[in-house]
Amino acid sequence: MQHKRLAGLTASVLLLTSGCSGDEDAADTTASTSPTVAASTSATTETPDVAPYIDIVSGTVDVDEVNEQTGQKDFTIAFVLADSAGSCTATWGGTKAINDSTVQAAIAKITALDGDTVVSTGGATGTYLESVCAADELATAYASALDAAGSNALDVDIEQTITAATVTQALSTLQADRGTAITLTVPVGGTVLGLTDTSTALLQSAKDAGLDVTVNAMTMNFTEEDDWGTSMTTATEAVVADVKSVWTDLSDTEAYAMLGVTPMIGVNDTGPITETSDAQTLLDYAEEKGLGFVRFWSVNRDNGDCATGEVEAACSGITQDAYAFTKLFVDFSK
């Protein structure tokens, strides 16, 4: 059974790896007829304890099959970007309208499972809404994406240069208007560095704005020290110190509780390889320390269809059973 964490808890940071990416094909952002998805006003304002990422644009994941094989029902769907013209219009991956019928059908499956959907913006590539929208426009774009997904949980994955004040102003409007659960997903720079200066500045901006956030640390794509599982836990400890340097009144327990971790399963972009044993090391650490949530990139890659040792979007690059990582993560309990 998965537990839920209310947005009203103290801020926490979730890091996604730079391995996370969206589809960059030519955009077709024309509105299309779509299945009914629950209105955001009735959606729960919570961040699920376990919500692995799905590249929803690719269409390579059958939510029903994943649930049947693993029991997982909550997912983070990625990525919402500006349209192909670079205007402040929310789209899926810059290629599909925000109410695209194929994406809506996948979301409807999550809803039918009584699962929660977290909407993720940004990622490693593409044109960010956060880069082209003014603050009031950005708040509106965020709301349109949440409404389309029947969600009130937003994951803002920042891996490019943005103006922090614009983002936090938009998020402040969004949270004031609808009580949205907000996660800031940021890269981890290493076992000693923790968060980059840019990511720390974003967190400081969120704190100064009075935002209630969680932090998602992307434990991926940094230099490996010791074994990779231990490297990810050591890096997370450095992130905890960074979080406490921003929210200085947090106890250790509170800092851990507002933090999530997101590894990249299988072959990482910069060389490290996350085997199931490494993921288990990270999950054991997360449970021991009382981290607020866990995710991974991505369900699309959670199979052994390409044990080549190369980075692929639709497979992990290692020898593994189908959904081996999802089966590990679904049992996380804080």
UniProtKB/TrEMBL annotation:
Residues 28-44 have a biased composition (Low complexity). The keyword Repressor does not apply. Residues 24-44 are annotated as: Disordered. Keywords: Signal. InterPro entries: GH (IPR017853), GH18_Chitinase (IPR052750). Residues 1-26 form the signal peptide. PANTHER family: BIFUNCTIONAL CHITINASE/LYSOZYME-RELATED, GH18 DOMAIN-CONTAINING PROTEIN-RELATED. This is Chitinase. It comes from Actinoplanes lutulentus.
